[in-house]
Design a protein that fits this description.
Length: about 130
């Protein structure tokens, strides 16, 4: 299996941005509850592995799973899921843009790829 070189962001089937990272946090505001949600991801040859999740509150389909622990105002847990081949991020003017965070520094997706790009697909680059 080839080594992964980073994270590819594609739209319309074409790579529009390459990020030389192997871990990142995806953060967003829930459209109904208006509470923050964060997920930590690892980029690997097997795909995108969700390694941790945090949510500020619960309700509207965002209940923390059994075993989640409440610390510093957030519910924390480790999802038990297989790697994803890709993630598809839909965008809307009705909600805040996704945030991509690397080493604690976050930026809106619109600062990385054009705001018109929808959906934006995240996948490992080889």
């Amino acid at each position: 299996m080839a080594d992964v070189s980073g994270l590819c962001l594609t739209a319309g089937g074409a790579v529009i941005k390459w990020l030389g990272i192997t871990s990142f946090t995806l953060a967003w505001m829930h459209s109904v509850q208006k509470t923050s949600w964060e997920e930590d991801w690892q980029v690997s040859p097997a795909g995108l592995q969700l390694v941790a999740a945090r949510v500020q509150g619960h309700g509207a389909g965002m209940e923390p799973p059994e075993g989640a622990r409440f610390e510093e105002g957030l519910w924390h847990w480790v999802p038990d899921v297989k790697p994803f081949r890709e993630l598809s991020l839909r965008r809307s003017d009705a909600i805040e843009d996704w945030q991509i965070c690397v080493k604690g520094q976050c930026q809106p997706l619109a600062q990385i790829v054009p705001k018109e790009a929808d959906p934006v697909v995240l996948s490992p680059c080889f």
